[in-house]
Amino acid sequence: MFQKVLIANRGEIAIRVARTLKEMGITSVAVYSEIDREAPHVREADEAFLIGPAVPAESYLNIPKIIETAKEAGAEAIHPGYGFLAENSDFARACAEAEIVFVGPPPEAIEAMGSKTKAREIMQEAGVPIVPGAIEPAPDVAAARVQAEEAGYPVACKAAGGGGGKGFRVAMTPDDLEQAFEGAAREGEKFFSDDRVYVERYLEDPRHVEVQVLADSHGNVIHLGERDCSIQRRHQKVIEEAPGPHVDEEMRERIGKIATDAAAAVGYRGAGTIEGMQVGDEYFFLEMNTRVQVEHCVTEMVSGVDIVREQILVAAGEPLSIAQEEVELRGWSIECRINAEAAHKKFAPAPGPIGDSYREPSGPGVRVDSGVEGGSEVTPMYDPMVAKLIVWDVDREKATRRMLRGLSEYDCGGLTTLIPFHETILATEQWAKGETCRDLMEDAEWLKSTAPADVTPPEPSEDGAEMVTRDYKVEVSGKLFDVKVIGEALAGGGAAAAGGRKPPKRERKAGGSSGSSSASLPSPLQGTVFKVVVEEGAEVAEGDLICVIEAMKMENEITAHRAGKVTSLSAKEGEAVNSGDTLATIE
Description:
Blueprint: E1 4-7, H1 11-23, E2 27-33, H2 40-44, E3 47-52, H3 63-73, E4 77-79, H4 89-97, E5 101-102, H5 107-114, H6 116-125, H7 141-151, E6 155-163, E7 166-171, H8 177-192, E8 197-201, E9 207-215, E10 221-233, E11 236-242, H9 249-265, E12 270-279, E13 282-289, H10 296-303, H11 307-315, E14 332-339, E15 341-342, E16 348-349, E17 352-353, E18 366-370, E19 377-378, E20 385-393, H12 396-409, H13 419-425, H14 429-432, H15 438-441, H16 444-448, E21 467-476, E22 479-488, H17 494-497, E23 520-522, E24 527-532, E25 539-540, E26 545-551, E27 554-559, E28 564-569, E29 576-577, E30 582-586
Parallel strand pairs: 1-2, 1-4, 2-3, 4-5
Antiparallel strand pairs: 6-7, 6-8, 9-10, 9-12, 10-11, 11-14, 12-13, 14-20, 15-16, 17-19, 18-20, 21-22, 23-30, 24-26, 24-29, 25-28, 26-27, 28-30
């Protein structure tokens, strides 16, 4: 067994791996960028090394530096976590060349399954059902049109090396194809250095069901059942559960065989996930993720198997600790991703500092995998995940109630997160019925209903005096009540002394005009302007695309808030913007 393992990642997954290493008696080595010096994952590990600036390309994606650090630390193996270098075959080969064990599958398996078109070809040859569509990339839009006609509209344009919702664009009609193809190619190049795109049929309301597999170097390949990950935004998961609410024993056995056959077909080793689409009783192979998944926790909760531990055992050359006939699934588990995002603003990233009041839920059946604490900051440099809240109970209904209890206990220290969204959607009839909730996720008006409690400051009094809100706890006949009082600020700063929240001064306007009456188009988030699609002087309609802002690994389309003429354009490609900065003026 290894004596020392380096964790080539950050945040909650780095802490998750370090915990298992500690239980196994293995020394853990953390790496960190300059901006992560005080991050919790640095303290969780036994040793820690600086690997570069905040920019991922110069730190967490810097293969030579990570290999050099592993050698310096005396690490015998490297665990990549998920994201960053986890599915990078070049990194796996670099580890082998440096005589360091890569805790993951062989590079050949990563390449075979990392290319979505190659994976589809292998699965088709292995007799695994695939979604109708191409098994070769389309060299241009014209070829993509031929693929789309053969697959049948609507179609999905998918980056050959994509994953995690990146490089995925939908064309509902032939008129949409060129934009979808180019968008998928652009994201494929940016996130995976691979602009190749292929086309397959887009299944409009399937269930996203995936199977967890484990394989060792002794010929053992098993599965740990399925997870349902149908609640997604922008084709990225936000809620996962195990088992699947519409998977019976017959289907579980069938898709489990599909998954283990798929893993065996590429000589897989380690932990991996076969992702598929469930449409009624049908199941189609979608792709394979050759790493530990973000949502592996729900499978651990129902199976009792530590998936990270199995990864390390396999990497050390040992057999799996459990056989297929020993796998027993018990109860129900749900995971909510606590992301720094504003669901009511179309899931716009909401980076920022976390206050000292930060508090995570606990109690029976509650697990929190987090990478932050009070005083931390969620930076736009990395993904928006704050933590994962996972619960277990005997059935789906009770697990839902436990999750709602856990969400109600969570205090994110003033950071905007998806908690209000989770609380709202888990209380819907659609969730109770086990539906995909796709109609809700695409309904802008419904999403607005998930906004946090109103914190709009009160209007000034008629005589112009400043108004403040004060919160008190009042005890009446032995019962405690929370009371909110709105009134004029006391002279000499008495409001602050009373524990009130002093609202920012607001300019008074004639009439109660809405925000859309303003000519200025403010940025709803902090990030970098990736693309500007209009010019000064252009006439635009309400809802027309103005620019694209990249933040926290996501492209966010900013549209015109009103119809008119673009009289000034402040947004410049490649420049950073803060939330509230004016992007354009439309009059």
